[in-house]
Amino acid sequence: MGRPRTFEDDDVVDRAMEAFWINGYANTSPAQLAEATGLAKGSLYNAFGSKRELFERALARYDRMGADLTGEYMSRPGSTREVVGAYLRHLVDADLADPDRRGCLAANTALELSGQDAEIRRIILAITEHNLTTLANRIDQGRRDGDVSRDTDPRATAEFLMNSIAGLRVMAKSYDLAVLYRIIDTTLSTL
Predict the structure, then answer these.
(1) How far apart are CA 7 and CA 95, in angstroms?
(2) What is the distance between the alpha carbons of residues 68 and 46, in angstroms, rounded to a whole number?
(3) For a pLDDT cut of 70, what percent of the chain falls above it?
(4) In sequence order, what are the residues at sequence separation of 6 or more whose Cβ sits closer than 8 angstroms to the Cβ of residue 20?
């Protein structure tokens, strides 16, 4: 009979997610995962199967966190421009406050793996779709409320915003706040 688990799966996935986020998938070794999670490699793989399975769980965790954050911001009171602006500034501020300047795990993963891994591409598209839907719903609400033009296409505008978000998250690795806030201001002019 095996020993009982002395760890919470979610805590381990969170710590593994941090390691993948900093290093990328390919550059995160089993030894780094063991160190990050505090578990021996054997325990880690007995609990989570493989590095790939743990990575997919980390991406699922990141998806839930991102969807929750986007939903929380898009449900705030205010005009669509105010709500989206607060959300974009939050993302940039958080990226700049991060000493590792990790950016977005989904964008990083897309750049690293989507071109060569169909399953990862599907996962990244699903993560993106969750946020696209929330943004499109908020833009549509803005159309109904009268703070977004009635001829605005919510889906196309949400896609433009996601493109801007991905770009901001990548640029936050190198650029300063003034440049990123100018990009946000330009992006918001489309609403």
Answers:
(1) 29
(2) 30
(3) 96
(4) 28, 55, 58, 105
> Radius of gyration (Cα) for the chain, nearest Å?
19
Band of pLDDT at residue 19, cut at 50, 70 and 90: very high
Q: Could you tell me the pTM of the whole model? A: 0.90
Cα angle for residues 145, 93, 55 (degrees, 5° grid):
95
Average pLDDT for residues 56-67, to the nearest whole number?
A: 96
Tokens coding 175? 């650029």
- On whether the CB atoms of residues 49 and 90 are closer than 8 A, the answer is no
In whole angstroms, give the CA distance from residue 92 to residue 169.
Answer: 7
Say if residues 124 and 97 touch (Cβ distance below 8 Å): no
DSSP 24: -
Contacts (Cβ under 8 Å, ≥6 apart) of 6: none
